[in-house]
Design brief:
The chain has 308 residues and is mainly alpha-helical. It has 15 helices and five strands. Strands 1-2-3 form a three-stranded antiparallel beta sheet, with no helix packed on it. It has a two-stranded antiparallel ribbon with strand order 4-5.
Length: 308
């Protein structure tokens, strides 16, 4: 009788109620998701990100069956997370992982349907730049072994994770190129960076600073900088009078600088590693300085035309 009541309640709420589906738990959905990520060979940092999303979801859905995770439950999760200070984008990333869990469960025949996944409106994409003076000011306050990371990011537009996981096997010093392995690229696609003169200088400094037994190009006494970058970065920005600057601002700046330099956008996308045009266009945005320059050039043209 209790089982019949439960099934009737499930049907009343629009939930599937097959015997097998009823036994599928959140923990099983989460385990399948992590297993799929590991099978795909995602980089360690991305796998860690996925585990963090699962941990967030588990605090709310951990004791639930899959059929109990309804759209209403997700909206309540979003409300609770926002109440604890999580940004809308963070909540949406969590719910995106939950959506993938349901997709895998349906593909595996464990669930027959997926509930509607709500999304919160997000703020407009950040549009910060790293002007040259800002770059020099922050560099002055960074510890020595972090400066080359800043230089490489400013000159290449590569993602911080791509830079910090770069190994000497990826660097061809004789040919003057760096080859990013697909397994460490966010887009899962490899690419080649031809080293300009300043980037070759960075590589030579790193070559002289090699540590025995350490394959990393950027390190501190043979130890990775990947999990110890935020603190020194924030302190350097604060000391430079630029609190809130992001390392990712270098990426937007590099894209803008390449376009300003007349580099074809298709080539610029290959250098920066932008897979889609929409994301590249979001980064190739106009700064206030660009608008001021355009206004000055227009005024000069009008004045010259009036003098004729």
């Amino acid at each position: 009788m209790a089982l019949l009541k439960q099934r009737l309640a499930d049907l009343g709420h629009g939930r599937p109620s097959g015997p097998d589906e009823e036994r599928v738990t959140f923990d099983q959905l989460a385990a399948d998701y992590i297993a799929e990520r590991a099978l795909k060979g995602v980089p360690a940092a991305r796998l860690q990100w996925s585990r963090a999303r699962v941990a967030n979801l588990k605090t709310f859905f951990g004791a639930m069956r899959g059929v109990d995770i309804t759209t209403s439950a997700m909206r309540e999760y979003a409300r609770v997370r926002r109440g604890k200070g999580a940004e809308p984008g963070t909540v949406n990333r969590d719910l995106g992982v939950l959506s993938r869990m349901f997709t895998l469960a349906m593909q595996g025949g464990k669930l027959s349907r997926r509930p509607y996944i709500p999304r919160l409106p997000e703020n407009s994409p950040r549009q910060g730049f790293m002007e040259h003076a800002d770059y020099l000011a922050i560099r002055e306050h960074l510890p020595t072994h972090y400066r080359d990371v800043l230089d490489f990011g400013y000159l290449s537009g590569w993602r911080r994770g791509e830079i910090l996981t770069l190994e000497w096997r990826d660097v061809d010093r004789a040919a003057g190129v760096v080859r990013l392995r697909p397994e460490v690229s966010k887009t899962r696609e490899g690419r080649v960076l031809v080293l300009s003169g300043p980037l070759q200088d960075v590589m030579e400094r790193r070559w002289k600073a090699r540590a025995l037994g350490c394959p990393l190009v950027f390190h501190r006494d043979g130890l990775t900088l990947e999990h110890h970058f935020e603190g020194p970065w924030r302190r350097a920005c604060k000391s430079a009078g630029l609190p809130g600057k992001l390392f990712h601002d270098l990426r937007r700046t590099a894209v803008r600088n390449m376009v300003r330099a007349g580099i074809p956008e298709r080539v610029a996308m290959q250098v920066s590693g932008h897979k889609t045009r929409s994301i590249f266009d979001r980064y190739n945005i106009v700064s206030e300085a660009d608008l001021r320059s355009a206004a000055d050039r227009l005024a000069a043209y009008v004045q010259a035309a009036g003098a004729r």
